[in-house]
């Protein structure tokens, strides 16, 4: 009965929220389509970028791969896992490296959108304790999680399941933290900016929906793809209700209730996700079906639509603008320069660090070519340089500059819940500018190679091209930063103004609806026009503040009057050519290479960060990758007692022995020193297709699947949102309801 009630409660809330949202989306879709067609016809481009833009930065490349421990909640064991981060920034966990090399199905696929990376168990426990008010373990009692090393890495999500990892050293922890943060940063930015209609329609619909609930300001959970964002929107309203209803009914010790609550929240999130995806896809399909007719009307009646909108805007402006200007003068204008300065300092330091890292990498490459050799060394270094922007560790010094961003009292005044939105946006700009600089450099150098004679010519050419690219970078980075500052200031001040003006203005907007012709009602909305008028009231002050900062030469910003004309007229034509593959073009390898071998080589060798060879010190037992000459693992004795240590101290001793080089020939699993009491969990309805039954543990001695069976298995894709796991042996299995396998490792699902 409880599960039935839960299912209907979730379905009712999801249907209600999605019904209101889809109405907003349909309205915003027409407006976004009109704006897109108008922009296409009229054009309003800004300064032309000087750097080239790479179309497909990381196709068929691996960002990072390596070993780390994962805590399996279902059987309370710490298990060694081989983690691969492919070009789509998903976290893919394999049983071991051998399973990866054999193309066996992964254990877990994780889309990290919305997650926070924690490096302290205390941080995690604080978040867990606050998630279920009134349930806090007493002092002296075992916490919900213990880590066998001092270097945990925890992926925490307010709604979905949590993932627990640990490593052996602080250096490893920092490296993995940088990798995980890169994954979160990329996955959070899951709404494609290439979509000129669907993306703005979606984000505006989310904003309008939240404003209808009196929720203004930035929203931390606007992250991931559209279905993830909508699931977060539903959970934001649903979870407090469930917490009030279910929380008091949870039984057991505080730790068990916390664990149960996390599992219930995760199960509900899965239900919401499936229902949200179905309803949103249906709404999108309906809009796409109507698009040709709407676009035809827009192109035919463009002038009349623009005239009608301008007439509406003039009436709203006469009513709203006097009030808006007073509000801007009293509550916004005095703080614009303070907000801008707070944004400019860390952002400009980050972009300066990008320039410095790029300069250092190219200069070091040039020096090494002088000392070590010519073209062969150039190819080796260029392969590494071409992926510099996607090297999480080398880029970390740039990203860290944004950690200084503090709005202090301004954050509370303008209802900014968190600065993470601005930090991540600036960091994405940094990565893009780095890749643009690198791509422009390698394109110009590739063009010059045929004309060079000898090592000296090569080094002089590299230096000359570096100076050209840095000039282009300075101009483009200034343009990008000024645009970022303007957008951030608007993102901070506009919601504040709308909230201030709502009591006196919003109720009067309905009377302007009669000014819109019925034929144009799909493309002109009173609410959107009202917001445009409010934006105009503050835009002049924002533009002036950014302009003054540039005139004063603060933070190396170019003045708006400084326009760098295209000094390389043929450069952008070069960027349209075939992508440069330094290894294949200059390595002397035969051109014909089997596709399977090329794919395997791309996975194992062509990676942004080269993984250390050999077995890690703590890679033991059946989880170890067998190297030539290494002993085969013994078959476990069914009647023998468990050999795993049961306490954290014993685990640490075992790890210490491993790090000292002791030979281990038996299976050794890490436990969390927690009672293995069964934990109740909410079920997912049988109709859900996301959760799959987890495969049983594979062993190194297992039979190798046939190539055809391997190829038949589903591989992770950029758009996957649920775990797709096939059992060892390469046979794909149909979706199964959530459950626990014989190995006790349960199901782990990506969203």
UniProtKB/TrEMBL annotation:
Ranges where the PH domain occurs: 61-185
Gene3D superfamilies on file: Pleckstrin-homology domain (PH domain)/Phosphotyrosine-binding domain (PTB)
UniProt-annotated stretches for the region Disordered: 623-751
Biased composition (Polar residues): 696-707
Coiled-coil regions listed: none
UniProt biased composition (Basic and acidic residues): 649-670
Annotated signal sequence range: none
Record's compositionally biased regions (Pro residues): 630-644
PROSITE patterns according to UniProt: PH_DOMAIN
Domain of life: Eukaryota
PANTHER family cross-referenced by the UniProt entry: NIBAN FAMILY MEMBER, PROTEIN NIBAN 2
Family membership: Belongs to the Niban family.
Name of the molecule in the record: NIBL1 protein
Annotated organism of origin: Calonectris borealis (Cory's shearwater)
Upper lineage: Eukaryota, Metazoa, Chordata, Craniata, Vertebrata
Gene name of this polypeptide: Fam129b
């Amino acid at each position: 009965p409880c599960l039935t009630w839960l299912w209907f409660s979730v379905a009712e809330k999801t249907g209600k929220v999605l019904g209101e949202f889809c109405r907003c989306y349909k309205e915003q879709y027409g407006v976004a389509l009109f704006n897109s067609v108008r922009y296409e016809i009229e054009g309003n481009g800004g300064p032309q970028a000087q750097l080239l833009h790479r179309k497909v930065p990381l196709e068929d490349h691996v960002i990072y791969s390596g070993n780390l421990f994962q805590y399996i909640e279902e059987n309370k064991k710490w298990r060694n896992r081989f983690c691969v981060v492919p070009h789509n920034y998903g976290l893919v966990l394999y049983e071991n490296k051998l399973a990866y090399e054999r193309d066996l199905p992964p254990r877990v696929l994780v889309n990290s959108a919305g997650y926070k990376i924690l490096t302290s168990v205390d941080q995690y426990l604080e978040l867990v304790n606050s998630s279920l008010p009134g349930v806090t373990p007493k002092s002296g009692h075992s916490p919900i999680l213990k880590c066998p090393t001092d270097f945990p890495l925890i992926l925490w999500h307010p709604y979905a399941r949590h993932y627990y990892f640990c490593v052996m050293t602080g250096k490893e922890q920092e490296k993995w933290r940088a990798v995980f943060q890169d994954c979160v940063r990329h996955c959070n930015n899951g709404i494609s900016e290439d979509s000129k209609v669907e993306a703005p329609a979606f984000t505006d619909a989310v904003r309008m929906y939240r404003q209808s609930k009196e929720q203004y300001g930035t929203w931390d959970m606007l992250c991931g793809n559209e279905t993830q964002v909508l699931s977060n929107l539903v959970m934001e309203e649903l979870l407090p209700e469930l917490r009030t209803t279910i929380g008091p009914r949870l039984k057991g010790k505080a730790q068990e209730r916390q664990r149960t609550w996390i599992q219930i929240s995760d199960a509900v999130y899965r239900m919401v996700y499936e229902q949200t995806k179905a309803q949103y896809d249906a709404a999108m399909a309906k809009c796409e079906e109507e698009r040709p007719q709407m676009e035809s009307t827009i192109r035919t009646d463009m002038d009349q639509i623009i005239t009608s909108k301008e007439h509406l805007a003039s009436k709203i402006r006469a009513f709203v603008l006097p009030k808006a200007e007073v509000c801007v003068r009293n509550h916004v204008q005095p703080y614009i320069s303070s907000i801008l300065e707070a944004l400019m300092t860390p952002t400009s330091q980050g972009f300066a660090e990008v320039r410095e890292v790029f300069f250092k990498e190219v200069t070091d490459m040039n020096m090494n070519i002088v000392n070590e050799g010519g073209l062969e060394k150039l190819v080796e270094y260029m392969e590494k340089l071409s992926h510099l922007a996607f090297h999480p560790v080398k880029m970390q010094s740039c990203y860290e500059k944004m950690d200084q961003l503090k709005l202090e009292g301004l954050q509370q005044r303008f209802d900014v819940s968190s600065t993470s939105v601005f930090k991540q946006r600036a960091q994405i700009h940094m990565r893009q500018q780095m890749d643009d600089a690198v791509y422009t450099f390698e394109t110009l150098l590739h063009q010059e190679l045929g004309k060079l004679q000898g090592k000296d010519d090569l080094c002089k050419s590299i230096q000359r091209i570096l100076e050209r690219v840095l000039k282009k970078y300075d101009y483009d980075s200034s343009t990008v930063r000024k645009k970022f500052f303007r957008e951030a200031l608007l993102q901070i001040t506009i919601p504040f103004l709308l909230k201030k003006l709502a009591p006196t203005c919003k109720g009067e907007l309905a009377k302007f609806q009669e000014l819109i012709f019925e034929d144009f009602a799909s493309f002109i909305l009173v609410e959107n026009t009202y917001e445009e008028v409010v934006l105009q009231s503050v835009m002049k002050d924002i533009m002036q503040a950014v302009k003054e900062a540039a005139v004063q030469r603060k933070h190396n910003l170019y003045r708006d009057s400084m326009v760098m004309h295209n000094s390389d007229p043929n450069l952008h034509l070069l960027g349209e050519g075939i992508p440069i593959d330094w290894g294949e073009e200059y390595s002397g390898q035969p051109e014909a290479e089997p596709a399977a071998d090329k794919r395997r080589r791309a996975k194992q060798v062509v990676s942004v960060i080269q993984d250390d060879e050999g077995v890690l010190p703590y890679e033991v037992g059946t989880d170890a990758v067998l190297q030539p000459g290494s002993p085969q693992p013994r078959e476990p004795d069914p009647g023998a007692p468990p050999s795993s240590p049961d306490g954290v101290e014993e685990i640490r001793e075992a790890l210490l022995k491993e790090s000292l080089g002791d030979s281990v020939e038996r299976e050794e699993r890490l436990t969390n020193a927690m009672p293995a009491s069964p934990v109740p969990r909410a079920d997912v309805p049988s109709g859900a297709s996301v959760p799959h039954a987890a495969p049983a543990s594979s062993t190194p001695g297992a039979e190798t699947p046939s190539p055809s069976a391997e190829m038949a298995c589903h591989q992770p894709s950029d758009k996957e949102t649920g775990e797709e796991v096939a059992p060892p042996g390469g046979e794909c299995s149909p979706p199964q309801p959530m459950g626990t396998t014989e190995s006790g490792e349960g199901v782990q699902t990506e969203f």
